[in-house]
């Protein structure tokens, strides 16, 4: 198994990409829920929170037949 990842070309995150819109949505939700502010992250389990929130936002933005109520149960 190889533990090395190489990227041969520059990574671009376009303003209107699914990933960028999901990231912006995640930031807005996190700010409204009080998980982050200008000084940083306030909750002890912020990594788990942000990974889960980004995953949910990506599913919603990418519109993969996602029911919002199913995401709220997670």
What does this structure look like?
With 74 residues, the protein is mostly helical. It is built from 3 helices and 2 strands, in the order H-E-E-H-H. Helix 1 crosses helix 2. The model has no long low-confidence stretch (mean pLDDT 77).
Topology overview:
Elements: H1 18-32, E1 36-37, E2 40-41, H2 46-62, H3 68-73
Antiparallel strand pairs: 1-2
Please outline what is shown here.
The protein has three helices and two strands; from the N terminus they run αββαα. By secondary structure, the chain is mainly alpha-helical.
By helix and strand content, what is the structural category?
A: mainly alpha
Rough shape?
A: globular
What's the order of the H and E elements? Answer: HEEHH
DSSP strand count: 2
> How is the biggest beta sheet arranged?
2 strands, antiparallel
Task: Report the sheet-strand fraction.
Answer: 5-15%
Task: Give the radius of gyration.
Answer: 15 Å
Tell me the strand order in the biggest sheet: 1-2
Share of helical residues: 40-55%
Q: What is the terminal separation in angstroms?
A: 32 Å
Rounded mean pLDDT score: 77
Which ranges are low-confidence, i.e. pLDDT below 50, for 5 or more consecutive residues?
none
Number of helices: 3
**Assembly state:** single chain
